[in-house]
């Protein structure tokens, strides 16, 4: 059991129902100095309620409380200070980590409930942006966090593979493109046609009519239009999959916008029969005045459907297919207003899971101060960023550890891990400027720093040889060990916190704290010394290794055993 629960239970017993367990645990504080114990309860917060002096309340609690499992419980002024029984606590914590292994911290809050996660979702015929990278890695980590909390995540790539832009693309391709060019360099070529289309239609507005006509054909199932669309989609997907492979991210479904084409009419019919559609300048909209929002457009004046129409169909499909416990969208904060509209329309329609829609937004990312864009001049491609990072990691490893046997493999793990970690360590709403060199440093708040701590722990265990490692109640006398134990014991709480806040950064920060505590311990103590405490120290190192690897896994970062 973790200590805050233990303290809460003991206090609840002593307080005779004056406060609920939740209220007690919310009040617990971590004292500033060791002399004030490991956790403290501010008794003065009860003074009004009990009509007593704070000191008196603290003293009464101490007199009544069950002290088993604590080294001591002391009243200090208006506080009750709890000193944990370190040897018991260490043994219990290590026992839990070593027996549960990577499952340590697993809970069943989600009760197996389905959570579709709409993530990554790049647009066909455009390069994947850093924003899509953020959605991919945040979504992937949230899926792991959900699973760790007992939910069943379903990772869905809602590809932008439908819309009027495909009419423009077909026109551009037919006028200026060739099969050969597209095969050679699909995304760049397709972007080129699209950009050229927008340049030329300024003087040749008839191009727009042609594009509209091609999209109309596409929606009507015309063979030529469909084949071109399918081909553009396939070529783009190949490139995206290259990025997903590098990141080690997989999806359960690729239900892009086009997947919902045959499900849009039902949406329109439902909205009509619920009397929710209104005409506005020829278009069909859902009025959202009572939500204090602009109307949501469902059909354009020419009858074409929109991004919104497809998202309503998507939510309806997920509602029926998964009966979701949550319906999650990991999409940049610039679409926050849009998702509020989607949710409001679903509520108006009375879709059961409407109130389960969670938009998990995130801030902007720039690379070395440069923004990524598809329309203008220079663009930084995600694929290139990943390759650069791996190349830099390779150079570092060659210098630091020239004898490492699987250098290539480790360079990939470190180079990609640096990018993923460099993103996820930030509160997701923060805007970040990404500096590759900084994120690749083995020191500071980086992925390689945590990976290196893990490799160091593994190296110690290799040196220790073939010994059986188990928790035992030998107290480890090094004071630095205690900081590690406290971190390990805190992990189950962090797992829940990360879910409550939808924040992978909680896990990243945990891994940094644990790596730091471990490095301090490593610097101060002779772990492999041949004395009575050696087995306990090895149990500690093994536990650190397990939890560093597990926290990195939750983030989607690999942990090489050697680097
Ligand atoms: N393709 C969209 C974009 O790049 C993101 C899609 C997000 N998901 C959704 N269901 N709308 O902006």
What does this molecule look like?
This protein has 21 helices and twelve strands. The strands form four sheets. The protein has a four-stranded parallel β-sheet with strand order 5-4-9-10, with helices on both faces. The protein has a three-stranded antiparallel β-sheet with strand order 1-3-2. It has a three-stranded antiparallel β-sheet with strand order 6-7-8. Among the domains are: 82 residues, Arginyl tRNA synthetase N-terminal domain (Gyrase A, domain 2, 2-Layer Sandwich), CATH 3.30.1360.70; 85 residues, no CATH class; 167 residues, Isoleucyl-tRNA Synthetase, Domain 1, CATH 1.10.730. The longest helix is centred in the middle third of the chain and has 25 residues. The chain is an alpha/beta fold and 563 residues long. The relative contact order is 0.11. The protein binds arginine. The site of arginine has 10 residues, from helix 13. Arginine binds next to helix 13.
């Amino acid at each position: 059991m973790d200590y805050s629960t233990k303290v809460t239970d003991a206090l609840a017993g002593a307080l005779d129902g004056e406060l609920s367990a939740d209220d007690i645990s919310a009040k617990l504080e971590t004292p500033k100095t060791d002399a004030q114990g490991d956790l403290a309860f501010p008794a003065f917060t009860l003074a009004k309620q009990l009509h007593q002096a704070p000191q008196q309340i603290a003293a009464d609690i101490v007199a009544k409380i069950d002290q088993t499992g604590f080294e001591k419980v002391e009243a200090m002024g208006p506080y009750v200070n709890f000193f944990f029984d370190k040897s018991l606590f260490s043994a219990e914590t290590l026992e839990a980590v070593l027996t549960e292994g990577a499952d340590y911290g697993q809970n069943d809050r989600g009760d197996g409930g389905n959570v579709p996660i709409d993530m990554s979702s790049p647009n066909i015929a455009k390069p994947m942006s850093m924003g899509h990278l953020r959605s991919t890695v945040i979504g992937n980590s949230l899926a792991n966090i959900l699973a760790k909390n007992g939910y069943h995540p379903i990772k869905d790539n809602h590809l932008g593979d439908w819309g009027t832009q495909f009419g423009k693309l077909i026109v551009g391709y037919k006028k200026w493109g060739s099969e050969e060019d597209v095969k050679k360099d699909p995304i760049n070529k397709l972007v080129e046609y699209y950009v050229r289309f927008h340049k030329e239609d300024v003087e040749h507005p008839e191009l727009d009519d042609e594009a509209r006509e091609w999209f109309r054909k596409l929606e009507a199932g015309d063979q030529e239009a469909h084949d071109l669309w399918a081909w553009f989609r396939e070529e783009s997907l190949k490139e995206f999959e290259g990025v997903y492979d590098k990141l080690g991210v997989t999806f359960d479904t690729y239900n892009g916008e086009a997947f919902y084409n045959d499900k849009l009419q039902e949406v329109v019919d439902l909205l009509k029969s619920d009397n929710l559609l209104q005409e506005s300048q020829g278009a069909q909209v859902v009025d959202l005045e009572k939500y204090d929002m602009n109307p949501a457009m469902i059909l354009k004046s020419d009858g074409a459907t929109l991004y919104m129409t497809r998202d309503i169909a998507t939510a309806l499909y997920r509602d029926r297919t998964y009966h979701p416990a949550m319906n999650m969208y990991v999409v940049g904060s610039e679409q926050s207003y849009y998702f509020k509209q989607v949710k409001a329309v679903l509520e108006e329609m009375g879709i059961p899971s409407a109130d389960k829609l969670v938009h998990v937004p995130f801030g902007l990312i720039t690379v070395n101060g440069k923004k990524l864009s598809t329309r203008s001049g220079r663009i930084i491609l995600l694929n290139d960023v990943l390759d650069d990072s791996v190349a830099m990691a390779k150079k570092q490893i060659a210098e630091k550890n020239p004898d490492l046997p699987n250098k290539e493999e480790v360079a990939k793990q470190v180079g990609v891990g640096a990018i993923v970690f460099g993103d996820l360590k930030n509160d997701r709403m923060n805007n970040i400027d990404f500096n590759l060199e900084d994120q690749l440093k083995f020191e500071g708040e980086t992925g390689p720093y945590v990976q290196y701590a893990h490799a160091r722990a593994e190296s110690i265990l290799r040196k220790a040889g073939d010994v059986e490692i188990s928790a035992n109640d030998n107290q480890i006398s090094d004071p630095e060990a205690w900081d590690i134990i406290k971190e390990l014991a805190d992990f189950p709480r962090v797992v829940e916190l990360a879910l409550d806040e939808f924040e992978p950064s909680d896990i990243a920060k945990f891994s940094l704290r644990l790596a730091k505590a471990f490095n301090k311990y490593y610097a101060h103590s002779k772990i492999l010394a041949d004395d009575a405490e050696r087995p306990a120290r090895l149990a500690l190192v093994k536990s650190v290794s397990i939890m560093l690897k597990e926290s990195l896994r939750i983030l989607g970062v690999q942990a090489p055993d050697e680097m």
